[in-house]
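Notebook p. 47: complex prediction with phosphoenolpyruvate.
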Amino acid sequence: MRKPLVAGNWKMNLNHLEAIAHVQRLAFSLKDADFDALDVCVFPPFTDIRSVQTLVDADKLRITYGGQDCAKMDSGAFTGQTSSTFLAKLGAQWVIIGHSERRQFNNESNDDVSKKLVSALRNKLTPILCVGEDLTERNNRTHIRFTLNQLGQSLGNISKSDVSQIVIAYEPVWAIGTGEIATPEDAEEMMSALRNWLGETYGDSAASKVRLLYGGSVKSGTAPGLMAMPNVDGLLVGGASIDPDEFVAICRYRLALVGPRK
Ligand code: PEP
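Predicted complex, structure tokens below:
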């Protein structure tokens, strides 16, 4: 009932010309059968989005796209920021909020994240809210408590009716861009804790609708094992999404699956 989602976070890679070539390659490789089986979205840098929009609209592509961050406010004197309103106007459907690189390099707090979620929802964007522990919490076995606390604070301003509109990405910081990856069992342990918490807080109906993604050094070889887990509904892919062949192979994880998830 939860359609799988594979999302490619390009980070600060690919200029607008490279973005066009990249999306054309994805569009050539991904078929209707792929889009029927899963949602695919890419997160280009802001400077690429108008070019991606033009291509997606002109060729009626089924690839969707979003922003890697958004401002809390819709407009005003906020030099260098980009609002959800503007992203929505460019046809974006998604926005990543609270990525660990923004928490680390831009000092974003859970309170900032919470306000950005409200802004995204106000503008009818689907937020992908990133949470996850660093290595110290993992080694101390406090990773679940830490991540649930981060989730609770980030969702502080979100109503019960809005929560099922949000996608949550569990991205352990120690796995992002490092080549280290959570095992499918580690990912499932966290995902089921997240879903149980959502159920206790917002009710089982809302919790069962929320898509939970795993992110952190995912490659085509590791995608099927992660996607075989019952509470892993998709993948947030960073470095590997820059290589179109690798990203397409990740989107085709289902070809390596057996059983009900295939
Ligand atoms: C990310 O940036 O969200 C991410 C998961 O990166 P990577 O796949 O490179 O670890």
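Notes: The radius of gyration is 17 Å. The longest strand covers residues 126-131.
Next step: compare against the earlier run before touching the bench.
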